[in-house]
Amino acid sequence: MDTKFYWFIYQAKYSALILFAGSLAVMTLWFTANGVFSVETMPGSWSRLELIGQALMLILMPSYFAMGIVFAQRRSLALAWLIRSQTAFDFTHHVESVPGRNLLTGFVCGFAFSFFNVPGLGIIVSSNSSVMYAIALAQILLWSLVGLLLAARFHVARAFYNAGKRVKLDIFEISNLKPFGQAGLTDALLIVVALAITTLQSFDALFRVDNYTNALLVALPAIAVLMVTPMYSLHRRMVERKNEELQQINERVRAAPKDFSVENVNQLEALLQRRERVKALSSWPIDMSVISRLLLYAILLPLAWLGTALVEMALDRLLAP
Fold first, then answer.
1. pTM to 2 decimals?
2. Number of alpha carbons in the 13 Å side-chain half-sphere of residue 71
């Protein structure tokens, strides 16, 4: 990776803020220059509030993703360093270096998918509307960025997955492996906040399913994959190790004397207690904090839509004659 690019992504103090502010300024100028905020005749059947909501969403979302990728990569690298410090297993170079071919593939997939989210090219051209051009191109840019971001995050998830195959494992003490369970939380939060931003499309307090279908088709599977992948190989090893331990205990239970001598009773009781303890061991490197955060993220989206609707209703009352 280029030294300056590495420094900007992983070390520069204000890189996320610079990317956010720069993207925000560019997108705002783009929509302003194309008359989105001053147009008098609405394209198609759109209302003015719906158009403003679309524009705000397409301004904020690319800016958020530009900032979010820096945050996500830094968080993943920090977790990889934590795993290294606790297990002496180093895979940080795999986390911080995303192959260019992965990014190119993600960009192309995002670019192609964007055409499912914009009107037909014929409709855009025949509309002869700079507003339609601006929104269509912004949608293409947005989905291309989504492709880039997901490509980078899938690569990181796979780096954790591969590390989970080789890191030292003790099923009785997995606290040093909790970063594998935390790795996907960053992506879940990143995607959930992005879904919350999409509620700006309902700025006119009308929920249109079509506006969210494609986003949900991408977001929900992505959350599932990015949450599970980093810890799945470790989960499989934990299950195998538990089964091996249980098999050994069961063999010793079957071979243990069943008479009522104190020594034999104590030995059998110890084996039975150990078997129950092994059965109760978690086979995932997660704890209640991870589960509670996921539940919190799950309620953010409906709360965001409700908040958008309340803001619009408040504006209607304030601006009403």
1. 0.86
2. 18
